[in-house]
Amino acid sequence: MSKAYVFTRHGGPEAESFVDRPPPVPGPGQLRVAVRAAGVNPVDWKLRNGYTRPGAAPLELPAVFGSEAAGVVEEVGTGVEGFTPGDAVYGATLTGGYAEHTLLPATVCAHKPDALSYRDAATLPVAAATAYDAVRQVDLRPGATLLVTGVGGGVGVATAQIARSFGLRVIGTASAGKKDFVESLGAVHLPPGPDIARRVRDAAPDGVDAVIDLVGGADLEAVAELLGQDDRTKLISGADRDTVTRLGGSPIVRQRTAAVLDEVAKLVIGGALNPYVTQTFPLERAADALRAVEQGHVQGKIVIEVDA
């Protein structure tokens, strides 16, 4: 049997529990992986609360928590090429990451380089890959200025570092308590607030060339005015699809490819991207790991580690 941490219905923490289940069987194009590490993300508790990803079918319950994992291939499904049992891999999960075993789609799975730990690899498929896609989507030249709202969160931290590695100047909004941390990423820190557009103009007298929004709502409405109507293609949001579309921008378009995972791994190995794993928990303490993220006081990433 294989242990997994699940939610049995939509609701709060009371809906969570451990279950023992047979290891999942890989279908065509899938890999069964013995999990070594799983990333913990805000979307995990949001899905428990009833959130549905745009375009996705409702989850079948009970559902295993977790969207990203790293581990060792145990079995490959039909039609899979390039992966064999024993390979160290990381990627987006099909059957949740808070578990001893999970399924990964071979198309959104990459070989883990020896220089990349399982712990760090498990943080890349969601936040770092989203950040990479976002920076590529705004497509700025070196020296341009990028504004990132919500730069202190998981995607924002990765966005700032990736943008800096591409030669961009980064201005980021985050709470006052994250000022030193944001500046350590090489970004100019600004606290959010109703006058954020004016303060961005003060920090960037020559204007901003693109906005990556990770907050949505009023902040997105405020910073949209920094870009003229003809420049709104450079306004993208990972937090508020409806508002950004109304404002003339677009949602972040996820590529969801192994090639993107390879690129972010290279950035980690080369020192340009620090996953900032600040806490790890054993699988038995999955609830504690999730509470830490749900309460919103985490600086950096939390990872669940599974014994081999």
Question: TL;DR of this structure?
Answer:
The chain has 308 residues and is α/β, with parallel strands linked by helices. It contains 10 helices and 16 strands.
List segments where confidence is low: pLDDT < 50 over at least 5 consecutive residues. none
Q: Helices and strands: which structural class? A: alpha/beta
Strand content: 25-35%
Q: Overall 3D geometry? A: globular
Topology overview:
Blueprint: E1 2-7, E2 16-21, E3 30-40, H1 42-49, E4 63-64, E5 68-76, E6 88-92, E7 101-105, E8 109-111, H2 118-121, H3 124-138, E9 145-149, H4 154-165, E10 169-173, H5 179-184, E11 188-190, H6 196-203, E12 210-213, H7 217-224, E13 235-237, H8 241-246, E14 250-251, H9 258-269, E15 277-282, H10 286-294, E16 301-305
How does this structure look, described?
The strands form three sheets. Strands 3, 5, 6, 7, 8, 15 and 16 form a seven-stranded mixed beta sheet that branches. The chain has helices at residues 42-49, 118-121, 124-138, 154-165, 179-184, 196-203, 217-224, 241-246, 258-269, 286-294; strands at residues 2-7, 16-21, 30-40, 63-64, 68-76, 88-92, 101-105, 109-111, 145-149, 169-173, 188-190, 210-213, 235-237, 250-251, 277-282, 301-305. The chain is an alpha/beta fold and 308 residues long. The two termini are 15 Å apart. The mean pLDDT is 95.
